Amino acid sequence: MALERYKLLNDLWKAGIKAETVYKDNPNSKKQLDFAFEFGIPIVLWLGESEIERNVVKAKLLNSKEELDIPRDETLSARVKELIDANPVLLAKNEQPEAGKKAEESKQN
Length: 109
Description:
alpha+beta; 15% strand; 3-stranded antiparallel β-sheet; 109 residues; single chain
């Protein structure tokens, strides 16, 4: 699994995309999310057994909590760049769309 993550990382670097990984064989999702929040990374790409079987990469947008599958083909780098352009920074929790929605709901009640 780590080898596949390193291949993905290399592909992203070749495309000029800044990318980082947790350098452990099988880091759990909490460690990966903690790493992303600690370093202000707005998008997490996951590559597990299911994703490898389906030849996709799972992207989690931390600002909106949205998850989507991106085909692991020649369009991967372009799609990741689009996501980065749309999500350039990790917003503070109170600035994230869901937090704003909850604040509006509490004002109405």
